[in-house]
Amino acid sequence: MLERWQDAVDQCAEQIASQPWSGNLGFIYTTDSHVDALAEIVPRLKDKTGIPHWVGTTGIGILRTGHEDYDQQAMTVMACGFPETSFRVFPAVQDDLDDFDHQHRGWFGDNIQNFAVVHAAPESPDLQQLIPDLSEMLNGGYLVGGLTSSRSRNLQIADTVTSGGVSGVLFSEKVPVCTGLTQGCSPIGPKRTITEVSRNIVLRIDGRPALEIFKEDIGETLAADLARTAGYIFAALPVVGSDTGDYLVRNIVGIDAENGLIAIGDLPQKGTQIMFCRRDGTTARDDLVRMLKQIKDRTSKAKPRGALYFSCLGRGRHTFGTNSEELGFIQEEFGDLPLVGFFANGEISHQRLYGYTGVLTMFL
Q1: Which UniProt keywords apply (predicted)?
Q2: What is the pLDDT of residue 76?
């Protein structure tokens, strides 16, 4: 185990230097043990590798080809070589997209921007609105990424260390990619409709007390001991217009047994559809295999050159096992493909913020 962050950076730089080509963009993910050194890590990486642009963040766990690293000092990097005008790193965007538009308008005019890798600070206000707004700014561009996870400060990297909002890198159509999303929870009841709500507190579902519906759907055993539902049962909000049955998993953050209310980690509206779901290891494995085979089929004519994977903190060792089994499935399907990523506080795919999912992106 490397005890000094300088040693980790130098080892990464040596591995990059051994390659017969030079890169111009790097992805870096470190465990949160390195958070206090990030401001020194980034310039040292630039100096040692000659790669001018870096994006990334910290995670309570990080990912590399076939391996998951937790609870230790660890760092993973991937060097990429793209056409010089095909990407553009952008610093943190918080609430003023007008400034973002002004700063990048020239690049937008020269490129059809359709894809971005983004990292976000989980404490940022209005994040669930900022993500679709940013996608809309990119003419409906596809976003992939995740929310920083850390036991201390939440920091991101976009050429320099930053915090707050959303930062990352934009790609033009000159960079072909293939993405997929896999769910980690399975529905346990029918789609229902929220008929009365106050912010994140759901009062009535299908015209009945919300807690009554919740107990009905989870079954008698769990309904008799609601404490057992924590971390196991979640709310699911079906994505309107999805032809794949997609849904957003949200935590149940409170139950008011006296008044028959439940509180969820979102701000649904009256008329929003809702289901309840459970964390399910078998479903998670089956759906991961499905996604991998689907991506394999879609990339059969263009061999992937590298990959990014963003998985939920609730997956990995908590769902698949403690021996990097989740990353093992990917390696089994794609071999020793260069891959980096991290375990996130929330996953971003297209223009939505997910939970308990995995988001895989292949560079072709």
Answers
A1: Cell membrane, Membrane, Transmembrane, Transmembrane helix
A2: 97
pLDDT at 1: 41
In a shared domain, residues 85 and 120:
yes
pLDDT tens readout for residues 344-359? 999 999 999 999 999 9
Question: Which residues does 7 contact at the CB level (< 8 Å), separation at least 6?
Answer: none
Per-residue buried b or exposed e for 180-219, using 16+ beta carbons within 10 Å of the residue's own CB: bbbbbbebbbeebebbebeeebbbbbeeebbbebbbebbe
Element (H, E) at 77: strand 75-80
Separation between Cα atoms, residue 208 and residue 169, nearest integer Å: 46
> What is the reported pLDDT for 2?
46
Token output for 303? 């061999």
Asked if residue 161 and residue 50 are part of one domain, the reply reads: yes
Residue with tokens 């465990």: 31
Residues 220 and 256 in one domain: yes
- Residues 183 and 192: their CA atoms lie apart, in Å, by 20
More confident call, 22 vs 286 = 286
The sheet carrying 352-354 orders its strands as: 87-93, 166-172, 113-120, 142-147, 347-350, 352-354
Range of the domain at 342: 5-182+284-363
Number of domains in the chain: 2
Q: Are 19 and 79 in contact (CB under 8 A)?
A: yes
Tell me: the pLDDT tens digits for 315-352? 999 999 999 999 999 999 999 999 999 999 999 999 99
| pTM of model > 0.90 | yes
173 shares a domain with 47: yes
Q: Are residues 236 and 357 in the same domain?
A: no
Q: Of 278, 298, 327, which residue sits at a domain end?
A: 278
Reported as a single tens digit per residue, the pLDDT across 5-48 is: 999 999 998 999 888 787 999 999 999 999 999 999 999 999 99
Question: Which domain-ending residue is among 278, 307, 324?
Answer: 278
Question: Within this chain, do residues 207 and 312 fall inside the same structural domain, yes or no?
Answer: no
Q: Note whether 47 and 160 are same-domain residues.
A: yes
Q: Are 229 and 220 in contact (CB under 8 A)?
A: no
The residues, any chain, with a CB within 8 Å of residue 224's CB and separated by 6 or more, are none
